[in-house]
Design brief:
alpha+beta, Creatine Amidinohydrolase, Chain A, domain 1, Creatine Amidinohydrolase, binds glycine, binds manganese (II) ion
């Protein structure tokens, strides 16, 4: 962990902060992820649970964190797999109980297989048990069993916990505000994804397949030691109008645009970037007209990513620019206020302008407080991603607009000053994109 961006002391500080919120009358229980079977002896790639990772930096399956504030023998207790030379020969090394303490800084450690015996004792004498129910059914059942044991049978105690409390809100507000080290990891993640997007603009030619572009993304991510943060979207022509298109298996045609929505992870922090560019390196004039509208909307929304602005201000700004642009180009009719109030623009722009970004690509944290859009604060990171999508079968508009889907997405950190665009290394204007794609003809 010594050359990691997020150091052991930052993970420890997060546990201390959470322990303070839980208080001496509470106990928090946070399970790690388990390996998921794909078939027979084959598993899906392991990805640690983001809440658990945030508090531990521990990347093995079958682990559980118990935070018992004020516990005499130490409050941060990890349950993990014991060392096992035979299994480690097949599956790779394990930290074991000693490693959990010496390398990861936990106060105490027990074998994962002993959790059913030990955890009820850690809950004893505390009023509230904090955990996230509803995510893993097997974990929910274990927590109920541990509670029951303290209320009945041979483990019955004088003061069993009376309340189960949701941990999510407290922990997720903590995750929403990023530290300097987290912003550094997210900037690296965005820079790595940016280099992958530039690579695609360099190699893209008519006749290539979406799959080839997707492979170029993977090459860049994997060769730099990173993983995708979600399944990439590589949609040529009309496929860009399918918002969650992941087939990525069609031929890229001369004259079409291609929409690429792809990001990766650095120390599990996600980037999430979209660029839309012409397969042959030159925008046609209808593509150019719609692209300029989306770009203006995106720039207007980024302007609003400032401390003190409402979360929804960016979306409202993007909606105004897109609705006005679609009116000017004749894709919508009426006045701007009619289009915005009736929502007629949603025929072509049907999603919100962004989401929180962090350890999850659609990261945790509330978007509203007491029913109102929450204020942005320094340390929040969000995506800004307006789009216009005109499907090929949309007979409400002139033919030249059909089969064009455009989205432009950047990752933006809110600071005390101007918005910090973490993904600024990917060309975004028509001039920049065409210059990258046509190097010999660049002015
Ligand atoms: N890539 C998922 C999203 O943009 O929300
Ligand atoms: Mn995206
Ligand atoms: Mn996104």
């Amino acid at each position: 962990m010594s050359d990691s961006i997020i150091q052991a002391n930052e993970f420890a500080k997060r546990r201390q902060d959470l322990a303070e919120m839980v208080g001496p009358n509470g106990v928090a229980i946070i399970p790690g992820a388990s390996l998921q079977t794909r078939n027979s002896d084959v598993h899906f790639p392991f990805r640690q649970d983001s809440d658990f990772w945030y508090l531990t930096g521990f990347d093995e399956p079958d682990a559980l964190l118990v935070l018992a504030p004020g516990r005499e023998q130490g409050e941060a207790v990890l349950f993990c797999r014991d060392r096992d030379p035979e299994r480690e020969r097949w599956d790779g090394p394990r930290a074991g109980l000693e490693g959990a303490i010496s390398r990861y800084g936990f106060d105490d450690a027990f074998p994962f297989s002993d959790a059913d015996e030990v955890v009820p004792g850690l809950m004893e004498g505390r009023e509230k048990v904090y955990c996230n129910l509803g995510k893993q059914l097997a974990f929910d059942q274990r927590v109920i069993t541990w509670m029951n044991r303290l209320h009945q049978g041979h483990r019955k105690v004088a003061h069993p916990p009376e309340q189960l409390a949701a941990l999510g809100h407290t922990l997720h507000e903590q995750r929403l505000i990023k530290s300097c080290a987290e912003i550094k990891a997210m900037r690296q993640s965005a820079q790595l994804a940016a280099s992958a997007h530039r690579r695609l603009m360099n190699v893209c030619r008519p006749g290539m397949s979406e799959a080839q572009l997707s492979a170029e993304l993977m090459h860049e991510f994997h060769s730099q030691g990173s993983e995708v943060s979600y399944l990439p979207i590589v949609g040529g022509g009309n496929n860009a109008c399918i918002l969650h298109y992941i087939d990525n298996n069609q031929v890229l045609r001369d004259g079409d645009l291609v929409l690429v929505d792809a990001g990766c992870e650095v120390e599990k922090y996600a980037s999430d970037i979209t660029r839309t560019f012409p397969v042959n390196g030159r925008f046609s004039s209808p593509q150019q007209a719609l692209y300029e509208v989306v770009l203006a909307a995106q720039i207007a929304a980024i302007e609003k990513a400032q401390a003190g602005q409402a979360w929804l201000a960016g979306h409202d700004a993007a909606v105004n620019v897109i609705a006005q642009g679609l009116l000017d180009l004749g894709l919508l009719q009426g006045s701007l206020s009619e289009c915005v109030e009736s929502g007629s623009y949603r025929q072509f722009f049907m999603h919100k302008t962004g989401h929180w970004l962090g350890l999850d690509v659609h990261d945790v944290g509330d978007y509203t407080v007491d029913g109102a859009s929450r204020e942005l604060e320094p340390g929040m990171v969000l995506t800004i991603e307006p789009g216009i999508y005109v499907p090929a079968d949309c007979t409400d508009v002139e033919e030249r607009w059909r089969g064009i889907g455009i989205r432009i997405e950047d990752d933006v950190a809110v600071t005390r000053a101007q918005p910090d665009v973490l993904s600024a290394d990917v060309p975004k204007t028509i001039h920049e994109i065409e210059a990258l794609m046509n190097p010999s003809k660049a002015a």
